[in-house]
Write a structure and sequence with these properties.
It is a single chain. By secondary structure, this protein is an alpha+beta fold. The protein has a single domain, classed as Ribosomal Protein L22, Chain A (Alpha-Beta Complex), CATH 3.90.470.10. It contains 3 helices and 3 strands, in the order βαααββ. α2 runs antiparallel to α3. The N and C termini lie far apart (49 Å). A hairpin with a 5-residue loop joins β2 and β3.
Length: 126
Amino acid sequence: MGKPKRERSLADTQAKAVARMLRVSPQKLNLVAAGIRGKKVSTALAELTFSRKRIARDVKKTLESAVANAENNHDLDVDLLVVSEAFVGKALVMKRFQPRARGRVGRIQKPFANLTIVVSEVEEAA
């Protein structure tokens, strides 16, 4: 039997990709995500390719996955895709401790973040 198919949460002209547990703080990841929000996919990919931020490689990979989902799963035209949403969420924070002088301890936090990218197909202006 199996369970019934879940309704799609996105519109028919949208596709998304999610990257979980990226080893970067959500604040730093949001700086890169804000740079591609609302842009055409080709422009966003070019920006991420030449970005000097380390996490830009993972953001680019997620964006390419969203484009592939749009093309293969939802039959959308790749040339008309726009990054409609790119949002960041907090994941876990690993706590580590480093010994310091005079018996004290320094607390080190290693944050992780989640990234969701939604691309949507827009009609060309005639």
